[in-house]
Amino acid sequence: MKSIEFKIGVVPKTSEIIEVYDSSGIKRPTKDSDRITKMYKNSNLIISAWLNNELIGISRAITDFCYACYLSDLAVKSEYQKEGIGKRLIELTAKEIGKETALILLSAPIAMEYYPKIGFEKVENGFIIRRTE
Q1: pLDDT at 111
Q2: Contact 48, 85 (CB under 8 A)
Q3: pTM for this structure?
Q4: What are the Cα distances from residue 54, in Å, to 13, 57, 68, 107?
Q5: Which of 40, 49, 53, 69 pairs as cysteine with 57 (C-beta 3.0–4.6 A)?
Q6: Rounded to 5 degrees, what are φ and ψ at 102?
């Protein structure tokens, strides 16, 4: 059995994050490492999953810890998907933010079926102004 270690508040190296993103199938600007670095610098809840000192999964959120939390990223390396790592990252995020804080996310089209299976409710009352770059 794999012994996966979860770390709260540790920011991995940008190169490790990019490796997870590229493997996971998540669409992020991984060709722009400065932008990835900035994404993490300006986030305040980062939880990572490690196997033998290898980053295999990560969640990145922005929260006030009392009302709302936006889960910006959830990524697990492809070879470790479907082992409950993403679910555990979300459970740890929920634990950190507390029961009075809503956990909100925008799903990638390929993950729309995943989130309801792990307890998320689909909402119809959201809006977005999409990024242009």
Answers
A1: 85
A2: no
A3: 0.93
A4: 11, 9, 31, 26
A5: 49
A6: -75, 140
